[in-house]
Specification:
Shape: globular
Radius of gyration: 34 Å
Number of strands: 28
Largest sheet: 4 strands, antiparallel
Distance between the termini: 112 Å
Amino acid sequence: MVDPSSNHDADDVPSDDEALLDPSEAAEIVPDDPDHPMDSDDNEDPEEPDGAHEQEEIQLQNDSLAHFDHHTDSIFCIANHPLTPTTIATGGGDDTTYIFSADVPSPVLPQSYESAPSTSRPSIPPLAKLTGHTDSINALAYTLPRGAYLLTGGLDGQLRVHSAADPSYPLLTSAAEVPEINFLLPNPHSSRPDTFALGASDGSVWVYALDPASDPANPLQVLQAYYLHTESCTAGAWTPDGKLLATVSEDGSLYVWDPFGEAAAAGVISPSSSGGGQALVGLTSADQRFAVEDGLFSVAIAPSGTSVAVGGAHGVIRIVGLPRLFSSATSPSSSSCSSPSTTKSQRGSSGAASKPKGGRQTTHGNTPGSASAGQAGAILASLQTQSESIETLSFSPHHSLLAAGSVDGSICLFDTAHRFVLRRHVKEAHEGFAVVKVLFGGSSAGAAPSSSSSTATPAASSQQPGSGDADAAWFLTSC
């Protein structure tokens, strides 16, 4: 017997084509899944309105001993009194100079260690407020060696001289010979007290002397005025003995002046000078070996006085030899050879200038008071490690080092005893900000303080000029 259920029509069997689903009939089914909060939202209050949640504020504590905030605009220059470094003068964009004292009591512990630290402290009151400039004050300096006068120079071209003997700093005299004053440099040697140099935006260089006792009606005397720079005179430096003055300019020129005629009296004439007899050393962009495109902005003289470093655009540094002028107490033979007691750092501080590399060797005897052109005007080294302008240079008085600060924010240290080889390159020393000042502290034994010491901050050192304490040396940078 045949089972009836086994009887199927051929049409009841589906074909392979019918077993497949038509693509047009396909549809994606997505299950309903509500949004879930992100991990960062777990701790938020669901009822808190948008934007109500703010970042946590961190309370910073000021542990400085004191502060001064009376200026209403940017501060452009600072000067310390040479005998009392805690007496500080500041000048800025508000056309005002303030004098204040940073001699405040020092607590046993910083303020943040106090049981109930104060969130604010009063500013130091000014000792004196000086007005009279009609534009920003761009330069300040106390005259040396005793700080008898405070010099102020402005973008209004005014040079104003105030007596520091009186606590009120009365105005002694003033002059206005130039469009803008770029820098003021007191002569560092005690044999020329209250003498200083001025560099101006028109390229001129002036040397003045203050002597109210000899001429009360005209206490400010012009000793020299030079006009070889064709663009703004950007920086200057005295030799440690105060006999020669080096200046640089935006036109890329370097000139070394003999303001008091001591080199001329000794018969020193540099064959490399392009100053037409006015300058002892003169190098310009016309000399391709020296040329620095886009100008020079900084200058420093080695503690030995035998070489000068100039810094300019694109990180270029040139080291140039200087003539030697020997005092009556030192003969050329004793100066050119180190004595057994001379330290290694003192021998190296003169840099590569201690090894003749070129230039005409001209010696006028070996008697006291004689001089030598030596390597005057010879290019001793050319350096380029940093990428942007060299704004500041400083030789160490205790070690064979030259420091350079750049607009690219880096600091370089060069070994002056080994042909200025690079010892260290501190990139982003100030986190990308331009380095505008590098300064080695202290001074070599028996040497007068560097003219750049007037820009040091009071907290940096209380060492008296000429103490010669190498252990008290310090290195200051600012941006």
